[in-house]
Design goal:
Layout (H helix, E strand, L loop, with lengths): L1 H11 L9 E2 L9 E2 L11 H15 L5 H9 L7 H13 L8 H12 L1 H14 L7 H12 L6 H11 L2 H8 L8 H29 L15
Antiparallel strand pairs: 1-2
Helix pairs in contact: 1-3, 2-5, 9-10
Length: 227
């Protein structure tokens, strides 16, 4: 099977496996797509590895067979506890003891093997540490969404973590409205809109003040958050 993997890599352009590089494949659109970093079984990195593999397969290996796609993913599984698992999978495939119907089925088995509850615990801990600070709400929400995926938090618990992490002034303003948001997406939208309006108001106040004081050169904008 190792020979098959090398042959598949040669078809892709001969870039080999270095991890985190860019390959120009011939089986998909002629665009550059980053290859995944080498995965050694670290539970905290399994989500990112799977996402990178999924993107590359969709962009560059859509015409390949499921077996070839699985072999390509395996070529980036190296080192640590992943080596033993990889060897077992390769032996099972060669002996036809296991047959994957799709690369997604294989990626699900990889996540189950290396993710488990540990990845969820890591994500949950990351989510509980997030705070908006000096970032815009839009930036904070994007980071919050990334941490929330796979954390096990949903519904009311997820809303409470969002409220905890946002700046106090925005949280207070949102809680004062007559009709509170009823879903996490509504919380995202309203918090982002409130933060954006507040920042625009501050910029307008600054322009008016500078105009009143003599029309000097505008000062460089400072990133501020609703206190």
């Amino acid at each position: 099977m190792q020979a098959q993997i090398q042959a598949l890599l040669a078809v892709q352009g001969g870039a080999g496996v270095g991890g985190g590089g860019v390959e120009r494949g011939t089986t998909g659109p002629k665009v550059e797509v980053a290859t995944p970093a080498i995965f050694n079984g670290d539970a905290g990195k399994v989500g990112g590895f799977i996402t990178a593999c999924r993107l590359f397969v969709r962009m560059k290996l859509r015409g390949a067979t499921v077996e070839e796609q699985v072999q390509w993913v395996l070529s980036y599984v190296q080192g640590g506890s992943a080596d033993v698992w990889k060897e077992n999978v390769m032996e099972e495939m060669e002996a036809e003891e296991v047959k994957y119907e799709s690369v997604e089925e294989f990626l699900a088995s990889l996540k189950k093997e290396f993710g488990g509850g540990e990845e969820e615990s890591i994500k949950a801990a990351e989510l509980r540490k997030l705070e908006q600070g000096g970032r815009t709400m839009e930036e904070f929400v994007q980071e919050f969404k990334r941490a929330a995926r796979g954390s096990g938090y949903e519904g009311r618990l997820l809303v409470e973590e969002l409220k905890r992490g946002m700046n106090r002034g925005i949280r207070r303003k949102l809680m004062e409205v007559e009709n509170l948001p009823t879903s996490i997406e509504q919380w995202y939208r309203r918090a982002t809109a409130l933060d954006r309006n507040w920042r625009e108001s501050r910029r307008e106040e600054e322009r008016m003040r500078e105009k009143k004081e003599g029309g000097g050169a505008p000062k460089q904008e400072q990133r501020q958050s609703l206190p």
